Amino acid sequence: MKIAITSVLALALVACSQQKAPAPAEPEAVAAPKTAAEIHDEMLVLDTHLDTPANFSKADFDIMADNPSVLGSVQVDLPKMNRGGLDGGFWVTFTPQGPMDPASYEAAKQAALTRNQEIHDMVAAHPESFELAYTSEDAARIAATGKKVVYMSIENSYPLGTDIGMVEEFYNRGVRMIGPVHFRDNQFADSATDLGANDYGGLSPLGVELIKEANRLGMMVDGSHASDSTVDDIIELSTTPIMLSHTGVKAVYDHPRNIDDDLMRKVADDGGVIQINAYGGYLEQLTPTPERQAALDEMQKEFEGISPATADAETRDRYIAKMEEIDAQFPAPRSTFEKFLEHMNHALEVVGPDHVGMGADWDGGGGVVGMEDVSFLPRVTEALLAEGYSEEDIQKIWSGNMLKLMKQVEDAAAPKPE
């Protein structure tokens, strides 16, 4: 019996040895790291200074078409926004500075109201692709539907004349950011680039009322183009932090339009945000060729005393055509993507990623070699990742900081009547 049992045990051991051993577990697949383009595509990307509405009245411009890019003036349309991952931003009502008299104020007001209406009309014509935004919460909701975000702003409050009630008029028309001044001093404030004797040393008494009214309504105040003393006054007076919607830094290029490190820290310490522009003339010294300068001088004589924004349609069209002719014959010198990054990186070094953003001045003269239109925006994300900034930091730069500030301004506004 012992022999039989042993034989059975031996046969069992042989059978077990012939069974296949369990296959080793497959190692879990490791996800490939996301590319810069993929990271960019996942972000909410907003720009705080789109001068694109200036193109809405042009017969050969179509916001839905992939228009031929023209550096500084034709850089934003739906196809380019899609390629560049731009979800939208602040679309600007801009009126150049003119004489400060009742007739000029009225003409400028009508021009600004027309421009504001053109923004509304563009959105109404393409409801499947664009949507007006009014609050800080609207941006993410609109972008999630695949539409582009259309906030509205005013660059230069000159067309308000001396009627502070016009601030509320534009608020009711959807404007959520307002800048008191542009290239020259006006009735509200001193400009950074009006190099004559400043009129007020900062805000005028009417400018003080403008800031108070913006605070009451819940409009962000934009200190871009304002003199340093005006920015100081706004910070001191405003009940909420301020925005610089499109600016450069003096440490990289000492231009009156740019902001120095001390004032940049003051804006940031107050909770404000500095949005970096890509306007070549504020990024570095750019010298036009003698031929271009001569042509510009002749044009200046021809249109002396005429503001394109308030001129009749025929004069405005002639002005634009002349400028385009000069640009085609004698191209303007251009700054570079590397110089733009130098400005942005310096701002980030001084005040950190909680207080910096993007306001490139698209279609208003912005754009550089290597970032000619908004389709190139993923390059910015790629460069910031290469500098060591986290995805969280970069999301703040692209929209988080601006929307946080906007929410603060909304929360501080006076209660709206029922």
The CATH class label is Alpha Beta
Name of the CATH homologous superfamily: Metal-dependent hydrolases
Q: Give the CATH topology.
A: TIM Barrel
Beta fraction: 5-15%
Task: Give the terminus-to-terminus CA distance.
Answer: 102 Å
Task: Please tell me how large the radius of gyration is.
Answer: 28 Å
Provide the structure class.
alpha/beta
CATH architecture: Alpha-Beta Barrel
Q: What characteristic shape results from the CA principal axes? A: globular
Biggest beta-sheet profile: 6 strands, parallel
> How many H/I helical runs?
15
Number of domains: 1
| Mean pLDDT value | 92
Poorly predicted runs are 1-20
Count of β-strands: 9
What string, H for helix and E for strand, traces the elements in order? HHEHEHEHEHEHEHEHEHHHHEHH
Helix content: 40-55%
Could you explain the architecture of this structure?
The chain has 418 residues and is an alpha/beta fold. The radius of gyration is 28 Å and the shape is globular. The chain is built from 15 helices and nine strands. The longest helix is centred in the N-terminal third of the chain and has 24 residues, at 102-125. Helix 2 crosses helix 14 (378-386) and helix 11 packs antiparallel against helix 12. It has a single domain, classed as Metal-dependent hydrolases (TIM Barrel, Alpha-Beta Barrel). It comes from Hyphomonas oceanitis SCH89. Keywords: Signal.
